[in-house]
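WP5 quarterly update. Target: LPXTG-site transpeptidase (Sortase) family protein. Source organism: Streptomyces griseomycini. Length: 253 aa.
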Amino acid sequence: MAATTDDTEQHDDGPAAPPPAARRRMGPVVAAVSVFGELLITAGLVLGLFVVYSLWWTNVVADRAADQQADKVRDSWAQGPGGDGDGPVSFDSKDGIGFLHAPTMSGDEILVEKGTSMKVLNDGVAGYYTDPVKATLPTSGKKGNFSLAAHRDGHGAKFHGIHKIEKGDPIVFETKDTWYVYEVYGILPETSKYNVQVLSPVPKESGKEKAGHYITLTTCTPVYTSKYRYVVWGELVRTEKVDDDRTPPEELR
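Structure tokens (predicted):
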């Protein structure tokens, strides 16, 4: 007879798996590197948020504030006889004295207010100098230098595109009654932030030797720093009376 096999099949599971190895403790160097890496990641996130705040959110807030102030100025100008708009805007108006237009720098109108402190400029406006050299406002009719400053980045960044301005380009200052049309004749791409001579009534560094009706735009440079100053000079070429429709001069059309 043929031999028979057992009814139960033998299973060989092989040798038992060794127990998991105990986790080794991290050495002090590895632990320090891990903590340092986490700190770098946290610092990077904080820095990123700060950049977003500085270069985007401050622009949103400043533009909103500038628009509100600009509306107040234009509303004042539009008032009829007997209202505040019946006379010229005060040079010391807290709402602003007029609007700067520099089409090659920006397509926006820029409200001009008194002073160049951070409190003023952070509202997304340009400010005329009262210190260390006092600006001569064109509305005074006197010869001198209408010197202005504004931020180049953050807080509205109204002079961000100042590097686009070239000699011969127009700069226009708009008041309630008059358009003041200037022509750019000088540009200083970099100078010390302590160089106040660029604000002088006769800005000799621009090449001028005699008194005249000048305008000066100043802002920080390079972009995103405040190490130096960028300067643009212009000279008044003519004025135009504002008509009932506030038709802009041909340089702005």
